[in-house]
Amino acid sequence: MENGAGSLQIEFEVFISENLTYQNLSKMNFEQYSSFVYNLFSRMNNLKQQGIRRDLVDKFIHTHYSLIMMSANDADVLFERRFSAITEELTEFCSNPFFWETDFTLYMQKWKKLFQIDWLKKV
User: Fold this and answer.
1) Full-model pTM
2) pLDDT digits over 22-51, tens only?
3) d(CA 60, CA 12)
4) How big is the CA angle at 23 (ends 41 and 17), to the nearest 5 degrees?
5) φ and ψ of 64, to 5 deg
6) Do 69 and 6 contact (CB within 8 A), yes or no?
7) Are 34 and 115 in contact (CB under 8 A)?
8) Distance between CA atoms of residues 25 and 34, nearest Å
9) Of 91, 13, 32, which Cα lies nearest the Cα of 24?
10) How does DSSP classify residue 51?
């Protein structure tokens, strides 16, 4: 792995580890969550443009998902929905448009539509 790619990977892993956590997401109201999603995918878009590789993101997200879900409250359905929505988008276990293959502006229109439904707002 090149130095630049390695530093992108480290930046990504630190950002996700510090921000995409049960402690953070479980306390957010809907407005905070929607802002968080926009900021997270903006940052991911910057990393994507700098050359971060999707396969490395996938590997880390799968591991991170397992760790977070082990420490999450099983009764917190809203957290699970919100957390899974983000991780599924990063690993492409989702419907089109895919984050990795879509212009960022068009991609974020998908989230705007998702934010209009109650599924990410309440149980």
Assistant:
1) 0.86
2) 999 999 999 999 999 999 999 999 999 999
3) 9
4) 50
5) -60, -40
6) no
7) yes
8) 11
9) 32
10) T
